[in-house]
Amino acid sequence: MSKFNNLWIWISKNGEERFKLTFKQIENIAGIPIDHSFLTYKKELPEYGYKVGKISLKEQTVSFKKI
Q1: pTM over 0.85
Q2: What is the pLDDT of residues 21-31, one digit of tens each?
Q3: CB within 8 A of 60, min separation 6: which ones?
Q4: Which residues have a Cβ under 8 Å from the Cβ of 16 and sit 6 or more positions away?
Q5: Strands (DSSP E) found in 1-67
Q6: Which of the chain's ends, N or C, has fewer CB atoms near its CB within 10 Å?
Q7: How far is 67 from 50, CA to CA, in rounded Å?
Q8: Which of 35, 32, 36, 39 is nearest to 5 (CA)?
Q9: Distance between CA atoms of residues 7 and 58, nearest Å
C-alpha cells in the first residue's frame, strides 16, 4: 500500500474532470506531509483514473486530470 493511498482514493471518488488541491489540502487528505517523494508516488495515480497535471511550487498547488 502506498503512503498516498488515502489521497488516491479521495481523488478517484471526486469525479471531477480537472481540479486543483493545495499542498495543505493534500496533506490533510493523505494524513502525511507532502514532500519530494510525491514525485515518485504520483506514478501510481493512473491506476485510479487520474494523472497529475501541473505542480506549482509558487502557488503550492497540484492540478489533477481525469484520464
Answers
A1: yes
A2: 999 999 999 99
A3: 22, 23, 24
A4: 66
A5: 18-22, 50-56, 61-66
A6: N
A7: 5
A8: 32
A9: 22
